[in-house]
Amino acid sequence: MIKTAIAGASGYTGLELVKLISNHPKTSLEAVTSNSYQGKSFTDIFPSMRGFKSLICTPFDANELADKVDVVFLALPHKVSMAFAPKLVDRNIKVVDLSADFRFDDAKAYEAVYQPHTASNLLKESVYGLCELNRDRIKGARIIGNPGCYPTSILLPLVPLLKEKLISPQGLISDSKSGVSGAGRSLSLTTHYCEANEAFGPYKVGNHRHTPEINEVLTKAAGERVSLTFVPHLVPVTRGMVSTIYARTRKGAAEKQIRATLNRWYENEPFVRILPPDKFPNMSHVKGTNCCDIGFHLEPESGRLIIVSAIDNLLKGAAGQAVQNMNIMFEIDEKAGLDWVQTPL
Amino acid sequence: MIKTAIAGASGYTGLELVKLISNHPKTSLEAVTSNSYQGKSFTDIFPSMRGFKSLICTPFDANELADKVDVVFLALPHKVSMAFAPKLVDRNIKVVDLSADFRFDDAKAYEAVYQPHTASNLLKESVYGLCELNRDRIKGARIIGNPGCYPTSILLPLVPLLKEKLISPQGLISDSKSGVSGAGRSLSLTTHYCEANEAFGPYKVGNHRHTPEINEVLTKAAGERVSLTFVPHLVPVTRGMVSTIYARTRKGAAEKQIRATLNRWYENEPFVRILPPDKFPNMSHVKGTNCCDIGFHLEPESGRLIIVSAIDNLLKGAAGQAVQNMNIMFEIDEKAGLDWVQTPL
Amino acid sequence: MIKTAIAGASGYTGLELVKLISNHPKTSLEAVTSNSYQGKSFTDIFPSMRGFKSLICTPFDANELADKVDVVFLALPHKVSMAFAPKLVDRNIKVVDLSADFRFDDAKAYEAVYQPHTASNLLKESVYGLCELNRDRIKGARIIGNPGCYPTSILLPLVPLLKEKLISPQGLISDSKSGVSGAGRSLSLTTHYCEANEAFGPYKVGNHRHTPEINEVLTKAAGERVSLTFVPHLVPVTRGMVSTIYARTRKGAAEKQIRATLNRWYENEPFVRILPPDKFPNMSHVKGTNCCDIGFHLEPESGRLIIVSAIDNLLKGAAGQAVQNMNIMFEIDEKAGLDWVQTPL
Amino acid sequence: MIKTAIAGASGYTGLELVKLISNHPKTSLEAVTSNSYQGKSFTDIFPSMRGFKSLICTPFDANELADKVDVVFLALPHKVSMAFAPKLVDRNIKVVDLSADFRFDDAKAYEAVYQPHTASNLLKESVYGLCELNRDRIKGARIIGNPGCYPTSILLPLVPLLKEKLISPQGLISDSKSGVSGAGRSLSLTTHYCEANEAFGPYKVGNHRHTPEINEVLTKAAGERVSLTFVPHLVPVTRGMVSTIYARTRKGAAEKQIRATLNRWYENEPFVRILPPDKFPNMSHVKGTNCCDIGFHLEPESGRLIIVSAIDNLLKGAAGQAVQNMNIMFEIDEKAGLDWVQTPL
To answer: What would the mean pLDDT of A109-123 be, rounded to a whole number?
Structure first.
């Protein structure tokens, strides 16, 4: 059994991790930490868990954790993660970090949108945990930077097409839509029920922090500088994410080739589902799964490619991919604990 | 492994059964039948299942099923069930019927609100599958009438209090609220998005078919005729059910006794959670679980008892309880396949 | 033209008042005050108003208002209202107060659930603004205590039936359900989108502050002490309120009499709609109107009367009734500014 | 008073028209027709209207209408409109048609996506009722083709920018999102509550019938062939529409010029609101209004222009614009009956 702990368990991602780890056949959950709820019972925070999981939230203590666990999931805010992670890695505990702190190759790119990086040594060795694309490097890693939800939905379809030169790296657009749980459990007017209900609109147009994370990976895939136009929107649902991506095919690239390429990359992947022609993803089809659904349409005349991808922002976009990363790191069945569909209805 | 089939798999209850049975450690799913979708892939009906479960819907054929399975779940409309069930029982296949057809002891009570009963012999032997209260009889049963969702939410709290004479059998009221999935997948103006969204109100006031089902069980528990006032309401959520029940305590019954009684009946039950004082159920706390949460408040002066119960209408109110019944019938761990929390957020 | 001001315009009730007053044929809106947004444009707080109403929020100043207006709507929190109201009344400005501060006849009843009353002289002269029942006293009033939303939905159907001795004053129950806007615009975990969405449950069981307000009026109507059992619930919609009320008819009272009585009291009332037999109210039917819909069903055998009433909590439950009160106070057409249906869909 | 009738009043657009016309200071509503509900009271179809508007639905009869009214709004399905419209125009009744039948200049473009046009003479004289852009021609028109909701949201921002050569006519994309009421009141699985709730995704990718309607107008504005990439999505709200539009600026066009141009075209328009820098539209800001909100962001490096527009699909996208067209046709105040905000909360 892999012994695990979850730091920052009182947020929505924390809750998902607790559920996934509790239902995982090869793990035990040894500790949950929470700053704001220390000493409290986990079921007082999330009454749905009553009777299923009896846990008391403790403060984060690297020494205590080192005695108890093999891996820690950090479901913490940016900045807090990079303070905690080195203490764990130093004690030979593996880390899957769900913040942005260990997602970048380039500390400067990180610092341009977040803050000074205080653990840049560790940043150098951390692996970007986009499982399907970085599996080999994840295996040996001591620390994983678990991808953002928007980047996951955008990178999975685009990386293969850029690598295989089927689409132009210029003029890429992602019009993305997220459920409200992406904004977390902290209170704000934007996520106040009467403001988010029966509403829909874009936010952070032109300056969302996920943009550089996306561009760094796309640039590597394309072999030249990529600058995606990214517009996120808030949808009145609790969970789910859809990205509608617009690209231009390179001369000659036909629908057949695009399909063949995506199939080649993903047909053996359990968590990427390439939809048949004329079928498109919907948030409701991936809710409660670790899947990324991908559908596409090629406008014959213009060569414009429309790709639609969908994930559950809390699963493949956060806790699910984190568990998938752990499965790869520990070289157990990658599907363990993820091979089922939670409530899709 | 218990070999199972699900008849009527294309409805919402059918989908839940497919998911539960697929994740159940001791069962295999051998067939799904659907009248309207025969020959179609199950994932065409419910795209969320793509990659998880590959199934083709077949027409219902008792002989074929008899060769393949040990038990059939009938997630069929009233009337269809009583045509199919005898064919299965005759072939020594156990049946868990989710329609109303095998819920009544008294064929006349059934016929008063449904239609003439065409399998009244089988009705005599069928057991009302309210697991916590009828466990012993369920064990040996060949056919189970799986309780309605409203009755489940009302009977679990009331039966113990009536049996132990803590509340009066007169003047009982249940003000109940159901999510829209309770109305199924058939189209109607009531469940058209723009009509159900941002709306709330009662329906079938004074003549809901679940009332006689509830009264039959309450009458037996009380040892005298009970006639509950039942008012169902439609809530704009997909899944969930709350019943707010009003009763009068018998002279002398104090909060302490009520709590002690409910605890005594249910403290070892995995799927009934008696909430601590001043805590009350919410649909969101039971969503994705097979639990019935029960909280209560006794008005000191008036002796009025307010009981609130909550279930997931598709799980404890339908598919979850059906699986629990199967577990009991086959004498395996009652929690098998049900010991986890699906997406509560 | 009646010159008006709205104090506390930045809440949801304030917004409704601004819209109603702006569309009212006999009023002008001279000032809006807001503590938290002073100096800000009203359209920055509520972008929907851009182009329709250009207003700057000012701090509350009784002297300034006295020079400008005939009447002030106080859409302020409890306690703040009773500090502001006397200053206005002293300057001969009429006041419609939407807080609880001037709703009670009995200061002690108020103090038992709120705080010490610092304007009890004014409390003595203030009139409870339930328009249909107190019209004569409202006419001459200087200050109105605008009723709570729950009380409005409960009192309109019950007062006539109690006064005419058709129902027993004992054993009354109201199982009430409110949309989330009833909780206002202040942030809380309860009204955080992901907590309120796809959720439903009771709150403040046994101790909601509206209970004594309701009981004071019912007691007067019955001529004997009434103690209603009141259980409020939160529904995932923005606006709307339904109360399902349970009463016992007095011996001999038949459906016909009940209907005749309600019709006699309300058939000439523009804002109370007694529904025909077998029709019941729904939040969606009153949304955007100042109406209270009332439907009922009498269980023939038990004599149990089920009454369902529905209002828009922000209109008949708050801002709409406040404007109706102003219309009565100034003896203009009672329907002015309220004789239309906003977005019911 | 302008005498009006509404044909097809039992749909959601019909209901909006009834409300708008009933509150309009210069019109009377003489008749409502409905095929499916003839002989029924309008308040039986829409109980919210009880007490406000007493109307009986009649069958459509051109002779009867000709005796009674000056103008008829046709809120009918495609094809039915072109059968009815000529009968009215022949009798000197003005027509505002809300179907697609009279929106096209080119009958062939219409026939390519709908069906053979049976009133092509009338099509030649009909005016495309995009009020802000075609006001002069609308004035003298006998028949108006009221624009589709998607086209309205896309054309209002794009036409000025194309006409003034600030953006390239190549590579235009509109990623559009509509509330569910856009699909009307006819039942379908897509608009069944449990399917649309907690869901989001694209539909009709590559073949929505609004695309040729949009392209015809854009082509005229640009003076060269325009082929917009259009992807509509369904959002789980009742009403509202947002289009996120991607364009490339022509060399030299700066944010300043774009803003100046939009302001010049629209600053005196009561129903187009150009938002200040860094502000973006939201469905909730236009709900219940006849406004189109437009915000934009220019990516400095790439020259990519991101324009976001929002309308209420049932008002500026249908019934509101229809009334605005009538106001222009009859040369009364264009804002009459539209100069207020319905429930934005």
So the answer is: 95
Q: Does B180 touch chain D (CB under 8 A)?
A: yes
Residues of chain B with CATH 3.40.50.720: 2-125
Is residue D206 within 8 angstroms of chain A, CB to CB?
Answer: yes
Which residues 6+ apart lie within 8 Å of A67 measured at CB? none
Q: What is the pLDDT of residues B299-343, one digit of tens each?
A: 988 999 999 999 999 999 999 999 999 999 999 999 999 998 887
- Minimum-distance CB partner of B302 among C200, C203, C227: C227
Q: In degrees rounded to 5, what are phi and psi of residue C223?
A: 75, 10
Report yes or no: A203 at the C interface, CB cutoff 8 Å.
Answer: no
Residues of B in contact with C231 (CB under 8 A): 244, 306, 308
Strand-pair category, B229-234 with B201-202:
antiparallel
Confidence category of residue D342, pLDDT binned at 50, 70, 90: confident
Positions of B marked active-site: 149
Q: Does A117 touch chain B (CB under 8 A)?
A: no
Q: Do A339 and B198 touch (CB under 8 A)?
A: no
Please identify every residue of D annotated as catalytic: 149
Name the band, by pLDDT with cuts 50, 70 and 90, for residue D176. Answer: very high
Q: Which chain A residue's Cα is nearest to C12?
A: A194
Residues of D in contact with B191 (CB under 8 A): 192-194
What average pLDDT does this structure show over D275-284? Answer: 97
Q: What is the 3-state secondary structure (H, E, C) of chain C?
A: CEEEEEECCCCHHHHHHHHHHHCCCCEEEEEEECCCCCCCEHHHHCHHHCCCCCCEEECCCHHHHHHHCCEEEECCCCCHHHHHHHHHHHCCCEEEECCCCCCCCCHHHHHHHCCCCCCHHHHHHCEECCHHHHHHHHHCCCEEECCCHHHHHHHHHHHHHHHCCCECCCCCEEEEEECHHHHCCCCCHHHEHHHHCCCCEECCCCCCCHHHHHHHHHHHHHCCCCCCEEEEEECCCCCCEEEEEEEEECCCCCHHHHHHHHHHHHCCCCCEEECCCCCCCCHHHHCCCCCEEEEEEECCCCCEEEEEEEECCCHHHHHHHHHHHHHHHCCCCCCCCCCCCCCCC
Give the pLDDT mean for A275-302: 96
The predicted complex's ipTM stands at 0.97
- Taking the Cβ of residue D185 and every Cβ of chain B, the question of whether any pair is shorter than 8 Å is answered with yes
Task: Say whether C237 and B198 touch across the interface (CB within 8 A).
Answer: yes
Residue contacts between C and D (CB atoms, under 8 Å): 89
**What value does the mean pLDDT take over residues C204-215?**
93
Question: In CATH, what number does B150-313 get?
Answer: 3.30.360.10
Question: Measured between alpha carbons, how far is residue C337 from residues C314, D136, D290, D315, D323 in Å?
Answer: 15, 34, 20, 21, 21
Give the Cα separation of B157 and B150 in Å (integer): 12
pLDDT at D253: 84
- How many Å lie between the alpha carbon of B312 and the closest alpha carbon of chain C? 11
Taking a C-beta distance cutoff of 8 angstroms, is the pair C75, C51 a contact? no
The domain made up of C2-125 has a fold known as: Rossmann fold (3.40.50)
Name chain B contacts of A340, Cβ cutoff 8 Å.
19, 22-23, 52
Chain B (26-65) residues lying within 8 Å, Cβ to Cβ, of chain C: none
Contact flag B229-C299 (C-beta cutoff 8 Å):
yes
Cβ pair A188:C187 closer than 8 A: yes
Q: Which of these is catalytic: C57, C131, C149, C291?
A: C149
Read off the tokens for D141: 């028109």
Candidates D273, D286, D341; nearest CB to C19: D341
- Quick one: which H or E segment has residue D322? helix D320-329
Ranges for all domains in chain C classified under CATH 3.30.360.10: 150-313
